[in-house]
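>> received
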Amino acid sequence: MNAKLTTKLVAYHRVSTTKQGNSGLGLEAQQAAIEAYAGRTGACIVESFTEIESGKRNERPELLKALHHAKVTGAVLVIAKLDRLSRNAAFLLTLQDSGVRFVATDMPDANNLTVGIMALVAQQEREAISNRTKEALQAAKARGKKLGNPNGAAALLRAGKGNAAGVLAVKTKAQEYAQEMQAVVTNLQAQGKTSLGGLAEALNEGGYKTPRGGAWHKTSVKNLLNRFAAHLQ
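>> returned
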């Protein structure tokens, strides 16, 4: 009897979102590819597992179930597209370490060696991207570029983001700082420094910092004066 006629398959599908899982988008194509492979080889699909998860996450409970089922039943794990997962080191390493026989319909000649090489390449690419990002940030910092959002909490408040407690904390801290600076600014104004540019220059010369620890500019001085006015209302 031809061994292919009795080969058991455990199908593993992966979709990246719940929406895709519910709609069958992507899932139907994977199922069709696996069923076509089973038909060509005379194998029998004994169980199917579908993973609905984000590509950024490494947790794959359905993959572990599929691998376990294949191992205890002596079945072959079959996936539709290995190239779709070729950059995912976590998936590849899990597959390699399981010791389970597997086949990918788009790469039927792939084996543990192929997967091991893919996993190494994926990991190196991941590390290379991380290193390039760190180097770019360090280079930008060395050039004197300030990292992060230059408007800080102000941008967050304008966008209406953050929880209510966080927004209130930001506003409270800014207002408290404004009260501490009010006497300083009043003194400078008494000395004739009444323009926004004049006040910014005087504050910088005096070593005073903005609430975020930066230098004063016309806009930050204007924001400070607005807080003075809001406190008086």
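>> The chain has nine helices and four strands.
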